[in-house]
Task: structure prediction
Amino acid sequence: MLRQTGNQSAAGPGSQRAPSSVPSIAPLFDSIELAGVTMSFDGNVEIFGEGEPADYIYKVLNGSVRTYRVLTDGRRQITAFHLPGDVFGLESAEDHSCSAEAISQAIVLVVKRSALLAAADREANVARQLWRVTARALRQSQDHSMLLVKSAQERVASFLLEMAGRLSGASAVELPMTRQDIADYLGLTIETVSRTLTQLQGAATIELPASRRIVLRNRSALNRLDS
Amino acid sequence: MLRQTGNQSAAGPGSQRAPSSVPSIAPLFDSIELAGVTMSFDGNVEIFGEGEPADYIYKVLNGSVRTYRVLTDGRRQITAFHLPGDVFGLESAEDHSCSAEAISQAIVLVVKRSALLAAADREANVARQLWRVTARALRQSQDHSMLLVKSAQERVASFLLEMAGRLSGASAVELPMTRQDIADYLGLTIETVSRTLTQLQGAATIELPASRRIVLRNRSALNRLDS
DNA sequence: CGTGCATTTGACGGGGCTCAATCGCCGTGG
DNA sequence: CCACGGCGATTGAGCCCCGTCAAATGCACG
Result:
């Protein structure tokens, strides 16, 4: 198993190379022999930084990744969580508009942007996939904007439903991220997130066997809050 | 001058056709003879609705357009304002993820989605432009998300700077939208928007000769608030 | 068992929302 | 020319949700 840790920022494929052929399943990365390189990042290690040249495009194979921006006063806003199968880092501009960090240990497929764009020029199918993935990210970003204007209860309920849908789809969720991550994603404080969760637990809407583990007891109540 | 008003929703090019050749300047729409159709919409008239099939892609030639979503409880969140030159309605999915309305009278270039996608399949250059425009919209959506976690003062300051940059770039701005539009864009109430503006006027940061007209007196103070 | 970090819980204050009244602008008609 | 009505915008009063500050609890690891 390959492992590349402590690799700070501006992560192009470094010394460790993947065992050549990676069975890429994603629509964007198959049909082309872009055979990227896989890299592994420890938790809280930067994958790329805001403002850095966007020379690579990434796909989560394992683990989870957060992309975020930092305001001048230090507040951090997480723009998206990326789970296995998700593509991130697609920028049309030269530079990344946000930073990316592994949440816990994550294995990521890395593809040279120039190679992908060249392939897109050659094969219309690749170009179409590239556009679809970007358009889907746009829709998700808009979904996220909708979150940010709701009440704390609505934001937390929406978040739980989103995560339950993306991780397993079952009613038991093993969250990969901390309360601080959740708070920065929802535009709340950790205290408000925590209080809202215990409040939902008190209403028998959810159950909290462990801080990272959440069981959805009453999905319709959550959907009602989702508004 | 062509004019097509009261055209409710699901707006495909209707009976009125443009005087054939439209000098399209936008990167996305030139280099192809997609010679779309221009349509005119009165203020507050729907151009397309959320959930409707996304059969067309649009570009503002004149006037301004808002795209928005409505939450189940009736709250409206404006996702973006589209000014002359802006492209909107690009969806990879079959259906529109939001609704679009003209703010005041607006003239819009309409291009069949299938034609644009076919052209993208034939010409790599078109495909690249399509991707670039979508990626830029993604970045703008993320910028918008950053707005929504700031304080009221910061949101209004950011909004004024954004609009000043997009309309003219000068320090005098003639806003096309109402206070309600601004509030729904910033995730605030009209009262808070209004109070914040008068507050900024009191601090000699801006001037309000008319409710729609705003003069930026102290740009650096606004930048400081923008945080 | 002790240390460190994440999470929870509590008390309190303030920023923005709600409800309501007033103002200002503009078009219409007497 | 002015009165009136309608609508958008402003202003005021009160309250509540959520942020802030602080302390306690739980949990993993040495």
Observations:
- Residues 178-180, 190-191, 194-195, 197-198, 211 of chain A lie near DNA strand C (CB under 10 Å from a C1').
- Confidence is low (pLDDT under 50) at residues 1-10, 14-25 of chain A.
- The domain at 152-226 of chain A is CATH 1.10.10.10 (Arc Repressor Mutant, subunit A).
